[in-house]
Amino acid sequence: MGASTVRGSGFVMIVLGILGLFAGLGMDTSVSGGVGSTGRIVNIGLLGQQTSVLTVSGFLFMTGCMLIGFATVRDAVEALGAVIGAQAPRPIEQALYHTPQSSSEASDNFIPGMRTCPKCYAVAKEEATSCWRCRHAFEGMHHEVAQ
Ligand SMILES: [Zn+2]
Questions:
Q1: pLDDT tens digit sequence for 16-39
Q2: CA 9, 12, 13: angle at the middle one, nearest 5?
Q3: For the chain, domain boundaries
């Protein structure tokens, strides 16, 4: 269930809640009195129905608001996570292994027996022919050891 689906159902709930509130407030809770009665009397059963409608509508409205709020927060978290996920590998691994930022070629084989993928900076074994993470095909195997 995507965030847009949550937001959509939240919107629907808010609309239903508002409609229900109007319907409940506009509900005629009085009925014509029987024979001999001068005016209209409030029907307790209808009054109870109105209260129920208002309660449910209010609940729908609030739940819709919360759903939209949650979806928005989740969107923000997901966006933040995507940014962190895209940014984190390089700075973290560069900080850990002190690979120079200017040259991705020089970052290969900084750790003996290991190499860093020039594309995604995943640390892989020197013998690997392709990156385990991004499937980048390594080239020039083993020649980087002697520098
Ligand atoms: Zn890679």
A1: 888 888 888 887 777 766 565 566
A2: 90
A3: 3-87, 89-147
